[in-house]
Design brief:
Layout (H helix, E strand, L loop, with lengths): L1 E9 L2 H13 L5 E3 L13 E2 L9 E2 H14 L3 E3 L3 E5 L10 E5 L4 E9 L3 E3 L5 H6 L4 E2 L2 H4 L7 E5 L3 H10 L5 E5 L9 H8 L4 E4 L2 E10 L2 E10 L5 E5 L2 E4 L3 E3 L30 E3 L11 H19 L2
Parallel strand pairs: 1-2, 1-8, 2-5, 8-19, 10-17, 11-12, 11-17, 12-13
Antiparallel strand pairs: 3-4, 6-7, 7-8, 9-18, 14-15, 15-16
Length: 315
């Protein structure tokens, strides 16, 4: 039997929870299908010091739990399941509804859908990176750069994200080392010029990361073990932090061939809007934002999506 709801929010995190809060307060009786990792990327984030309203640091899981509780208090129905298939064709045979299938086997239909499935940082895939993530290893300079005042950090990558993060980190760190596996950057020329002009920056070309060095008690980063790509010759450098900047992957695979995306898989919405080209389907947060990727901007877009859904459902 297909369960019908006016509004279904796919995914959680700041965008999804904010959309749920606003939709619930508008008496839209939203249902959230939270996904495999309820709370999203913030569930693996330690201290959050830049989310408005918290004088003292709050951990990512604490912030997400508070948002979830607020959404539930206003009447959002939480379903811990994962959407595995959709049909947004609105066929007459389906009653003109948006259709969703979950991993549990449950089927849903909705008048409006808000997609807030987020994105995941791409990681190097080495054990030491996992062990030290949140203890000197980060994928967000904007989030964590403040913690590395007058320290030595490395940025791994060679695209726009890596160069932009390295430039940003020079505001805090006393030295920024960019490690790239090739002999040139893919980043825009103007960004490269800014990077090379900064006296705090050093570039190590043609090297890959073998291991992030660190201690376990307390957990902290102490350096990198690198290998020259061609020869395999190894070297170690001393550091206090490592920022992995090799891109993000939006969680949009389930929407392929159902919604327009850019070349990297980010959902495309109308200008100054969260609305997609499919009537009643909206997207908020990192699933459509390749620029800012902050909890507060995701939350703002979740609010926008809920308000737009309200206008849509009210004609």
């Amino acid at each position: 039997m297909v369960q019908h709801h006016r509004v279904i929010i796919i995914g959680s995190g700041p965008a999804g929870y904010s959309a749920a809060i606003y939709a619930a307060r508008a008496n839209l009786a939203p249902v959230m299908i939270a996904g495999m990792e309820p709370g999203g990327q913030l569930m693996v984030t330690t201290d959050v010091e830049n989310y408005p309203g918290f004088v003292d640091a709050i951990t990512g899981p604490e912030l997400m739990e508070a948002m979830r509780g607020q959404a539930e208090r206003f009447g959002t129905l939480m379903i811990d399941d994962m959407v595995t298939r959709v049909d947004f064709s609105r066929l007459e045979s389906n009653g003109g509804k948006l259709l969703l299938w979950a991993d549990s086997g449950d089927e849903y239909s909705a008048d409006a859908v808000i997609i807030a499935t987020g994105a995941q940082a791409r990681w190097l895939g080495i054990e030491s990176e996992v062990r030290l993530r949140g203890f000197g290893v980060s994928a967000c300079a904007t989030c964590d750069g403040f913690f590395f005042k007058n320290k030595r950090v490395a940025v791994i990558g060679g695209g726009n994200s890596a160069v932009e993060e390295a430039i940003f980190l020079t505001q805090f760190a006393r030295k920024v080392t960019v490690v790239h596996r090739r002999d040139s950057f893919r980043a825009e020329k103007i960004l490269q010029d800014r990077l090379f002009a900064n006296p705090k920056v050093e570039v190590i070309w043609n090297h890959r990361v073998l291991e992030i060095l660190g201690t376990d008690d307390p957990k902290s980063v102490t350096g990198l073990r690198l290998a020259e790509v061609a020869s395999g010759a190894e070297q170690q450098i001393e550091l206090d932090g490592v920022f992995v900047a090799i891109g993000h992957t939006p969680a949009t695979a389930v929407f392929k061939d159902h919604l327009p995306m850019d070349a990297d898989g980010y959902l495309i919405t109308r200008a100054d809007s969260t609305a997609t080209e499919i009537a009643g389907v909206f997207a908020a947060g990192d699933v459509k934002d390749r620029v800012y990727r902050q909890a507060v901007t995701a939350a703002g877009m979740g609010c926008m999506a809920a308000l737009e859904v309200g206008h849509y459902l009210n004609g």
